[in-house]
Design brief:
Layout lengths: L4 E4 L2 E14 H7 L5 H5 L9 E2 L2 E12 L4 E4 L21 H6 L9 E3 L12 E4 L2 E4 L5 E5 H12 L10 H14 L3 E4 L9 E5 L8 E7 L2 E5 L8 H4 L11 H15 L5 E3 L8 E7 L2 E6 L2
Parallel strand pairs: 5-6, 6-9, 9-10, 13-14
Antiparallel strand pairs: 1-2, 2-4, 3-4, 4-5, 7-8, 11-12, 12-13, 14-15, 15-16
């Protein structure tokens, strides 16, 4: 599958596709309860890349960030052969690992960063081998925000899935706990530098310890959003929080601050769930914002 690759100074960022598809508007209508279909369709800059014929374009990806000294993976998707409540995630059998190996060997990865610990961001932390979940990236330090980890660990230990769609217990036990047990977890602050070119940005709201990832090199910059936005329409309506945000008010504030920071700059904004084109530029548009695909 053709993919996107961006150059940011001395850094390259490659998108590895796990899933990419068009889904009915009903999916986002439920996920973004404050939205309306009329308001979404009024954002003419969404058409045809992100909205068309009653459908929305979304994806699940990893982002492979290669600096002069490190290979860093941002988010690891859903994973294969994992039992999940949501049909869209359940018992996947995708070409993710083949797509990944077209870029790097998993054993060559130095760092894995999870923007947060939801089902579609940590799944390929592990793979199934002889009936056991083992690390997919056996030589990588998996950077975890302690507040984020503690939140989901408590839910898992209490057998409390909150929203069943999130599979909090199963996800923690098959995709996070094995990383800790293998000694690969590294607890870091939400504003930590990963390399001289790669740093975390606190962006809580969707989850308690959510982070975005900023890449800066030789005067160029890019930022990987994580789930502070799920859909491009939230650029036009940053007040539209997600049903699954742990703090919807904080998520809206974080999203607007993020957009204010990066609008009308040269920074490439990589929307973690945006369908192709996934890399965009953000511009001010009255009291809100709009996007243009990055050329």
């Amino acid at each position: 599958m053709p993919t996107e690759r961006w150059t940011v100074g001395d850094v390259t960022i490659t998108k590895v596709v796990e899933l990419e598809f068009w889904t009915s508007h009903d999916f986002f209508d439920e996920m973004l309860p404050l939205s309306s279909r009329a308001e979404i369709e009024a954002l003419d800059w969404l058409t045809p890349d992100y909205v068309r014929n009653g459908e929305d374009h979304i994806g699940v990806y990893s982002f492979l960030v290669e600096t002069p000294s490190r290979k860093v993976v941002v988010d690891t998707g859903v994973g294969n052969f994992k039992t999940r409540v949501a049909e869209v995630w359940n018992q996947l059998d995708t070409d993710y690992l083949k797509n990944f190996r077209d870029v790097w060997e998993p054993a060559d990865v130095d760092v894995v960063v999870s923007t947060h610990l939801h089902v579609d961001h940590v799944g390929w932390n592990t793979k199934l081998v002889d009936g056991q979940w083992v690390p997919t990236f056996p030589n990588a330090a998996h950077h975890l925000i302690e507040r984020e980890f503690t939140h989901w660990q408590k839910l898992a230990d209490d057998n409390d899935s909150v929203h069943p769609f999130l599979d909090a217990v199963s996800v923690f036990n098959d995709s996070v706990r094995p990383i800790v047990d293998a000694g690969l977890a590294k607890f870091v602050e939400p504003d930590s530098a990963i390399t001289p070119e790669v740093a975390l940005i606190p962006s809580h709201g969707h989850t308690p310890g959510h982070v975005s990832v900023l890449v800066e090199s030789n005067g160029d910059s890019a930022v990987i959003t994580g789930d502070l936005m799920h859909a491009p329409c939230q650029i036009g309506h940053p007040e539209w929080s997600n049903l699954y945000d742990t703090d919807q008010a904080a998520a809206a504030d974080t999203r607007r601050a993020f957009l204010e920071r990066f609008a009308d700059t040269e920074t490439l904004v990589i929307g973690t769930h945006f369908g192709t084109p996934t890399g965009v530029h953000v511009h001010r548009d009255g009291a809100a914002f709009r996007l243009s695909p990055a050329g």
